[in-house]
């Protein structure tokens, strides 16, 4: 079982990154791929390995706390890796913890693939573990100086919208978010994605 990988991020896609470690490229599914930089500086990516009969998958996180939160969500009946990543993609993890503590079902049902029944199950199964769900997440936004063309979407916005689709949000939700984001000043893909998730939730 892997604990973490230290290597260069060589590719970023809407639903995964590639981490190269000693000449081997590991495909790692992450909540927000665009929070990772493609550069020559090695990154430390915490890893959760899922083994099934037909596949071995790697899931990556910025911190051990984020990984633990992912594992706690996986322990909830009805929550799979994709749903857990979609929940973690929203950077407001404190809001998630508060929603669990305060029985706020409506907050949790805003995540893709989470209905009232599953949201209630998350609250019931994790509420007594609330103290362990208070990690400090320090993900610094990346600034982009690339100008925005008012007549068409810039590449950063396109990538962010693709990431929302990869997380499971509907075409209707993505288009609604696109209308709001296109009015915003230039951002990095990571910032567009974070802002889009805050609008959706």
TrEMBL record:
Q: Where in the cell is it found?
A: Cytoplasm
- Which Pfam family, giving just one, matches this sequence? RuvA_N
- MF terms in GO: DNA helicase activity; hydrolase activity
Q: Which CDD domains match?
A: UBA_RuvA_C
Q: Which InterPro entries does the entry link to?
A: DNA_helicase_Holl-junc_RuvA_I, Hlx-hairpin-Hlx_DNA-bd_motif, NA-bd_OB-fold, RuvA, RuvA_2-like, RuvA_C, RuvA_C_sf
Helix-hairpin-helix DNA-binding motif class domain: residues covered = 71-90, 106-125
Record's subunit section: Homotetramer. Forms an RuvA(8)-RuvB(12)-Holliday junction (HJ) complex. HJ DNA is sandwiched between 2 RuvA tetramers; dsDNA enters through RuvA and exits via RuvB. An RuvB hexamer assembles on each DNA strand where it exits the tetramer. Each RuvB hexamer is contacted by two RuvA subunits (via domain III) on 2 adjacent RuvB subunits; this complex drives branch migration. In the full resolvosome a probable DNA-RuvA(4)-RuvB(12)-RuvC(2) complex forms which resolves the HJ.
State the similarity comment: Belongs to the RuvA family.
List, alphabetically, the NCBIfam families matched: ruvA
Job of this protein:
The RuvA-RuvB-RuvC complex processes Holliday junction (HJ) DNA during genetic recombination and DNA repair, while the RuvA-RuvB complex plays an important role in the rescue of blocked DNA replication forks via replication fork reversal (RFR). RuvA specifically binds to HJ cruciform DNA, conferring on it an open structure. The RuvB hexamer acts as an ATP-dependent pump, pulling dsDNA into and through the RuvAB complex. HJ branch migration allows RuvC to scan DNA until it finds its consensus sequence, where it cleaves and resolves the cruciform DNA.
The entry's protein name is: Holliday junction branch migration complex subunit RuvA
- Species, as recorded: Limosilactobacillus coleohominis
């Amino acid at each position: 079982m892997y604990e973490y990988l230290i290597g260069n991020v060589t590719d970023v896609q809407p639903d995964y990154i590639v981490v190269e470690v000693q000449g081997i490229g590991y495909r790692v599914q992450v909540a927000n791929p665009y929070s990772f930089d493609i550069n020559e500086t090695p990154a430390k990516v915490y890893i959760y390995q899922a083994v099934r009969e037909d596949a071995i998958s790697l899931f990556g996180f910025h911190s051990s706390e984020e990984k633990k939160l992912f594992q706690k969500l996986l322990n909830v009946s009805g929550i799979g890796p994709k749903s857990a990543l979609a929940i973690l993609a929203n950077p407001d993890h404190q809001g998630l913890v508060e929603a669990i503590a305060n029985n706020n079902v409506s907050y949790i049902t805003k995540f893709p693939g989470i209905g009232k029944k599953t949201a209630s199950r998350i609250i019931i199964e994790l509420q007594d573990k609330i103290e362990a769900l208070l990690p400090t997440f320090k993900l610094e936004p990346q600034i982009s100086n690339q100008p925005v063309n008012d007549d068409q979407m810039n590449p950063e916005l396109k990538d962010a919208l693709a990431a929302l689709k990869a997380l499971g949000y509907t075409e209707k939700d993505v288009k609604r978010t696109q209308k709001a984001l296109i009015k915003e000043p230039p951002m990095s893909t990571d910032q567009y994605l974070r802002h889009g998730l805050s609008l959706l939730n």
